[in-house]
Amino acid sequence: MIPALAYTLVALSGVAGIWGLLTAVLDKPPGKAQLLFAAGVWVVTAVQSGIGLVRLAGGYRPVEMATTVGYLLAILVLIPLAWFWANTERTRWSGVVLAVAALSVLAMTLRLVQLWTQVLA
Predict the structure, then answer these.
(1) Which residues contact 74 (CB under 8 A, 6 or more apart)?
(2) Which CB contacts under 8 angstroms, 24+ apart, belong to 4-7?
(3) Looking at residue 62, what DSSP letter applies?
């Protein structure tokens, strides 16, 4: 993992999460800008996960290998699933779905940073 990219992903996910909650509170469906932003968050997520998976394939061994692989794969599907939901069901709850996905990516990325710094000796 690249720390600067991970923390950029944390910040972007936080913005996406707050934006999703805000649209729900305002009783509005997510707009095109919000859906595009979520897609951008996914691109950063895909790059970070790809780098992580390549490093694991190259021999990097964190202490909790199964958890690390699980998180790297899970964060790849959260935003696309939420995006699809938000794009097909245009209600205020779509914003909540986007928020939950984005905040889950945020939490999982922070946990991945912790796991990545604990290496088997």
Answers:
(1) 108
(2) 5/44, 5/47, 5/48, 5/51, 6/48, 6/109, 6/112, 6/113, 7/113
(3) B
Residue 107, classified by CB atoms within 10 Å of its CB into exposed (0-12), middle (13-18) or buried (19+), is middle
What predicted TM-score, i.e. pTM, was given to this entire model? 0.89
CB neighbour burial string for 23-54, b if at least 16 within 10 angstroms, e if fewer:
bbeeeebbeeebbebbeebbebbeebbeebee
- Count of domains forming the chain: 1
Phi, psi of 62, rounded to the nearest 5 degrees: -70, 165
Mean pLDDT, 10 residues at a time, the chain of 121 residues: 91 97 95 95 96 91 90 95 93 94 97 82 50
Residue 18 domain boundaries: 3-117
